[in-house]
Design brief:
Structural class of chain A: alpha/beta
Radius of gyration of chain A: 18 Å
Order of helices and strands of chain A: HEHEHEHEHEHEHEHEHHEHHEH
Oligomer: homodimer
Largest sheet of chain A: 6 strands, mixed
Shape of chain A: globular
Largest interface: A-B, 22 and 22 residues
């Protein structure tokens, strides 16, 4: 974790920690918002991608599959390390995200979301070009990179509680490895995609069908292989929030914090605002605002 | 100015300075954004209001007329100083702004925008209750308070250029008093309300009819009596931006900076993005993002 922090020093932003008297009064706690929506590429994903790619020999080709923040993160990290990058994206990916990914110099390979298999396509690219696959969360170096956000927050503040968005579990697992044991750390996922809640109840990884949720960045179908044992052993709990609660949090961030946070990135804030995080009264509560790539058009559609 | 900074220390936020590689590349300069939309009440106006009220005997009643950021600024500043506050607001003021003003404990007196005279009403309140009128810009203590934003920015960074939104001129006049002479400082107003551009061309204060612009916070009809001599003597220039350029800047802030800035608050950024600020290439350019109180509903309407 400290090694990852050293690698990221001067490359990733040490993102600001925002506070709000209004939020504190509403929650009844001191809330510290680690603002990863202000990270490079607009999400914490840059941390894990850069750390993973920095462990490869300079110039090693890389490949990743993602239609979202991980795509841009790998593309930028690869450019900074002089690595050619191929990103496997669905043909219906938003034009802006594709343009941003290409803008960082990556080659985009399209697939049909209905009929294609992005994992197989990425594996083919890897086999053909010798490219290294940068996994979105199931990679120890990615997990360690993501943990540096919580590491920075804990270096500057004594937290009682930490609340982070939960998709595949890279951010949560990294945060759990980065925070002192006494910090109660919660993951927050959408109720429409509650694979973690179900898995923890069952005591084993449960797969669900593809979730439909406004939090596209958290719409995973099962806990990760590497993230599952860390999260199940160490997390204080996993909380689910509805799409309505996610939109309320996006609106609160916009109206009261003057910050643009995407629905998935606002999951921790949503859980706090909905009163779903246990025992926060009077505590110092960290929350990671993990991404801000929603764009004016989707934002206006969401809030209309 | 230093006295105002001392008074505001620990009361106003020392707001963060945001940067963006994307913006720097677009402008061809190093741009430092002093983020007064993250100030208390969401605008720099808190600085001037608190400074002015702090100069009165504690508990002195105050009165102000405003439907916008100055209303909330005076209401909060008065509450913090134990002063009863009366705010004269038009009857069609947005419910949210009225609620926020009342939420800070101020008494709201309504007037009809078509038939009423807010200045006269405020004067009557002052005469009856002995309340001190806190002017929105034509007050030396208000001007000094507003200047502390630029003072903080210049304390931490060597600027070549500073660009600030321009309505009545309180922020620009304060900034001109706060910055070293070698910093070229520009004001930016909406083209629909170009009273400053016309006045500077004429060499005297020119009044225009009530401007219709998306930048409601900059819709003044004439330069201020106190701000005019400071601005006309010291400013490097005044630039006008169209409503379209203002909306483009709001959208850029949202999409690329993940910040919510109201149209008037984005005027400096708009002028930079539109290439209207002279000789910025390769320079260190400060810009004040001066307010963020637009709200989800107006924002979505603006960007639709």
């Amino acid at each position: 974790m400290v090694a990852a922090a050293t690698v990221l020093d001067g490359v990733a932003h040490r993102t600001p920690v925002l506070t709000s008297r209004t939020l504190d009064a509403r929650i009844g706690a001191r809330v510290l918002m680690k603002s990863e929506h202000l990270q490079r590429v607009g999400a914490f994903k840059f941390r894990g991608a850069f750390h993973a790619i920095s462990r490869l020999a300079p110039g090693t080709p890389v490949v990743a599959y993602s239609s979202g923040n991980h795509a841009q993160a790998v593309a930028l990290a690869a450019r900074l390390r002089g690595s050619p990058a191929t990103i496997v994206m669905p043909s219906d990916a938003p034009a802006a995200k594709r343009a941003a990914t290409e803008g960082y110099g990556a080659t985009v390979v399209e697939y049909d979301r209905a009929t294609g298999d992005r994992v197989a396509i990425a594996a083919r690219v890897a086999a053909k070009s010798g490219a290294h696959l940068v996994a979105p969360f199931d990679d120890p170096d990615v997990i360690a990179g993501q943990g540096t956000a919580a590491l920075e927050l804990c270096a500057d503040h004594d937290l009682d509680v930490l609340v982070v968005p939960l998709g595949g579990g890279g951010l949560l697992a990294g945060s759990l490895l980065a925070t002192p044991d006494r910090v109660r750390t919660y993951g927050v996922e959408p109720t429409a995609g509650d694979d973690w809640v179900r898995s923890l109840a069952a005591g084993r990884r449960i797969a669900i069908s593809q979730p439909q949720t406004v939090a596209d960045s958290l719409a995973t179908v099962a806990p990760g292989e590497l993230t599952w044992p860390i999260v199940s052993a160490r997390a204080a709990g996993v909380v689910a929030v509805t799409d309505g609660e996610l939109v309320d949090a996006v609106r609160f961030a916009l109206d009261r914090l003057h910050q643009v946070v995407e629905p998935g990135g606002a999951a921790g804030l949503a859980a706090l605002l909905a009163g779903k995080v246990p025992d926060v009264a009077g505590r110092t509560v960290g929350v990671i605002l993990s991404g801000g790539n929603i764009g004016a058009d989707r934002l206006t559609a969401l809030l209309r």
